[in-house]
Amino acid sequence: MSLLDELNQLRTEALAAFSAAGDAKALEDARIKFIGANGRVKTLLGQLGKAPPDIKPQAGKLGNQIKNELEAAFESAKAANAAKGGVGGVATSAFDISEPLPVESRLSLGRRHPMTRTIDSLVDIFHALGFEIVEGPEIEDQRHNFDDLNIPADHPARDSFDTFFLSGNNQALLRSQTSTVQVRMMESRLPPLRVVAPGRVYRPDQIDATHHSTFHQIEGLYVDKNVSMADLKGTLKLFVGGLFGEDTKVRFRPSFFPFTEPSAELDCSCPACGGTACPVCKQTGWVEMGGCGMVDPAVFEAINSARGDNAYDPEVWSGFAFGFGIERLAMRRHGITDIRRFLENDMRFLRQL
Ligand code: DAH
Question: DSSP characters for 5-40?
Fold first, then answer.
């Protein structure tokens, strides 16, 4: 075989080797073998001196041409390899993408806080019942938190709504109940109204397993013509059914709230035992859900005087209202026994829910 033939064959072999190299290591081996400092191209060109004079110039020219061509082919094979996923020509096969990660380096996906998830499910249920979801401010004044809810300054009921005041003159406060949103809605909108307002409330309570200074309530207000206690009970039955299951029973116990008359406390059959008695319901078969009642006409009057009209004429409009503590609902739902867990952000707790 003449030197020219050998050069051409070497060229073919080298090109095939570069394009067959599946990773950076194989490619580098091919480079060393063919165009490296002691590679076959170099060796062959070293024989030029001994080549017959008639082919020497041609062989020299072809040799150089092949050397350049192979160097270019090597560079483009290297670039193609890197583009395939190797980093800077590092072998792609060094990464086995099907290999499971060691536990400690696995990313844990975030999720919504249990409180947020509970609020979302309450909101979904009330939305399906035709209620609009609204919000009110957490920083309030006396009028929205007390006066217009028929809790005058000298009324003993004010004591039962212990409140954080923000200023020396007791004007600004952190709302102690979401009932403030009832006032805000009626002040700013005309009847009929059908709203629920979930949100945070604050009370200077002694903190223990069932009390906290910061918790959530969901307030409901329904104002229309001829609204009755039966509407209230029917609505709350549907709500509790959506939350704990259709078979859940409800009952009213007489109670007192300044802004409702009559007022009631809503109980439902224990979601843990279905009403047969267990530690969750303290063996009674019933658990407390929260307060409710028919909007007291005195509240409508207070709203009218704040509005300066008679939009909520108690002779024309009637309504019901309710307010439930959301942590309590979530605790029942998930069997949580300490309200403080919701605010600690302990991952061991959050991961369980
Ligand atoms: N705001 C009351 C509380 O915090 C709960 C409540 C009771 C709200 C009766 C209502 C209601 O709307 O009608 O204890």
Answer: HHHHHHHHHHHHHHHH--SHHHHHHHHHHHHSTTSH
| Per-residue model confidence as pLDDT tens digits over 107-163 | 777 889 999 999 999 999 999 999 999 999 999 999 999 999 999 888 776 766 688
**Residue 325: alpha-carbon gap to chain centroid:** 21
Q: Where are the domains of the chain?
A: 3-101, 114-352
Among 140, 179, 295, residue to substitute to test ligand 1 (most atoms within 8 Å of Cβ): 179
Taking residue 327's Cβ as centre, other Cβ atoms within 10 Å add up to 24
Query: Helix 297-307 and helix 180-188: axis angle, to 10°?
Result: 50
- The C-alpha atoms of residue 195 and residue 352 are separated, in whole angstroms, by 33
Atom of ligand 1 nearest to the CA of 323: 8
Check pocket membership of 257 for ligand 1, CB cut-off 6 A: yes
Q: Check if 179 has its Cβ closer than 6 Å to any atom of ligand 1.
A: yes
pTM for the model: 0.71
End-to-end CA distance of the chain: 79
**Number of Cβ atoms within 10 Å of the Cβ of 59:** 21
Q: Which of 212, 266, 322 to mutate to test the pocket of ligand 1 (most atoms within 8 A of CB)?
A: 322
Residue 160 DSSP symbol: H
Looking at domain 114-352, does it have CATH number 3.40.50.150?
Answer: no
